[in-house]
Amino acid sequence: MIARIVADVFPAIGSRPVASVEAPERVRMVKAIEARGALDIANRCLQMCSQVFRYAIAHGIGGKSQPGVRQAWLENYDTCRAHRSLAVT
Fold this sequence. Notes:
Blueprint: H1 2-14, H2 23-35, H3 39-58, H4 68-74, H5 79-82
Helix pairs in contact: 1-2, 1-3, 2-3, 2-4
């Protein structure tokens, strides 16, 4: 888990305070991971980031809620492509 964050999340948004990271930046980060063909990792990174942001908001550390990030990314997410064993032929 930490290796995934170090490799994929920190280069995009890791050095900045949680409150300064906007939703479009998180979507770009996930789409960059997706562009490598790592759809499952993109989904997991988005989940981990969402947990961190929810914690920060709940404890007054972060900014405002950004509920549309997952929906913006999932618009083009094809579960059959992510799970090739489920692909219908």
